[in-house]
Amino acid sequence: MSEYTELLDVIEQLEDQLIQLDLWESQAPSEQALNSAQPFALDELKPTQWLQWIFIPKMRELIDSESEVPIGFEISPYFEQSMGGDPHLDNFLPILQQLDETVR
Question: Domain tally for the chain?
Answer without folding.
Answer: 1
